[in-house]
Fold this sequence. Notes:
By secondary structure, the protein is an alpha/beta fold. The protein is built from 11 helices and 9 strands.
Amino acid sequence: MNSFLKIDRKAGVGRITLSNPDAMNVVGTGALKALREALRDIQMDSRVRAVIITGEKHFCAGADIKEMKTKKPEEAEAFARLGHEICDLIEKMGKPVIAAVCGYALGGGCEIALASDIRLASQDAKFGQPEVNLGLIPGFGGTQRLTRLLGIGRSKELIMTGRIITAAEAHSMGLVNDLVKNEELLDRVYEIAGVLAQKSPIAVAEAKKLINETQDMEMGFENEIASFSKCFETEDHKEGIRAFLEKRRPEFKNR
């Protein structure tokens, strides 16, 4: 456990819980590095055969906007690469990863869920890629993984409007595998994780690897990182951040 997250292991299941509920589990560089360390630790633990990622009160409301405010393009690129590294660890880990989503899963939080193998949501969950409202694009793989999951048309709609959707809508789109009552979320996720933990680790890892290999997105990821950092050169992005922090509607000037 540290100031950003908690780790729990029992009966072959490892759980990582983002633990900054007062800030809706937003992630800055420190939180992302702690999450990277936790994922690496669980990846190396042979006792853990299935992994759950969740959050207290909220899954993750995205990147820390106050930290983002001061970033230059090269710093934004490093931040995006850190987020990509975490999502790649989740997607390529030789163990099944389940996202247990409660509350907000926005921006980078939604992208962490997208990188997971299975997504379950409580009825109060909300999903979205609202980066466009900050003069940005998704920076942790969302342009690629959301499109792979939902198709081009639906993904363009969500990313280009920044619309936040309910758990029921996310379920109807196929963004989440199952929708459960708020109080039953962890019990249901542990039930699925327990089933996965009893399967052949070799077979599960090979199946996951082969499915992922049919969806090669490496060039798309690199292009996304480049475009994300380029946005930090724009006046629109600076206006988007100011408007967010000042709690007003941004006035974008296309420059």
